[in-house]
Structures are given as structure tokens and as C-alpha cells.
Design goal:
alpha+beta; three-stranded antiparallel β-sheet; 3 helices; 3 strands
């Protein structure tokens, strides 16, 4: 029996509405790292650690598609 690995796309935010979109195979561990300030330079600097959205994907092909899409954006965006 082969168990498929689940991948998660998640959004974490700060109190000042700075958001970060990430992808991981271990959601709870990753969110706890963000809360501890170990998420990376950007998330530490802007204190981005509140989980606001998550969705799961089961296949490797979907993981690749999500990764390509997340890298196609870039830059600052203004949210109203």
C-alpha cells in the first residue's frame, strides 16, 4: 500500500496585513516555525505568523503547477 504525500499551500499574515504565501509538506511544523520567528528573513522582519488560509494537494503534478504559479507573481501588491 503506497501512501501519497499531501502538500499544502498556505497564507500567513501579520497584524499590518503583510502576507506570505508558502508551500510545504508539513503544515503544522512550518506554521510553528513561522510563529517562532524561524520562517525566513521576510517573515521574521515583518512578523508574519498568523495562518489565514490553507489548501491541500495530493499529487506531485499539482505541486509543480502550484510552485510555478507562486513564482510567476512577485513584487509588492496593494490590498484594499
Amino acid at each position: 500500500m503506497v501512501r501519497e504525500r499531501c502538500y499544502y499551500v498556505y497564507i500567513v499574515a501579520s497584524k499590518s496585513r503583510v502576507i506570505y504565501v508558502g508551500m510545504t509538506g508539513f503544515l503544522m511544523a512550518r506554521v510553528l516555525r513561522h510563529k517562532a520567528g524561524e520562517g525566513g528573513a521576510f517573515t521574521s522582519k515583518y512578523r508574519v505568523h498568523r495562518l489565514v488560509f490553507t489548501t491541500a494537494f495530493l499529487t506531485w503534478a499539482m505541486r509543480s503547477r502550484v510552485r510555478r504559479r507562486s513564482r510567476s507573481g512577485g513584487g509588492r501588491r496593494r490590498w484594499s
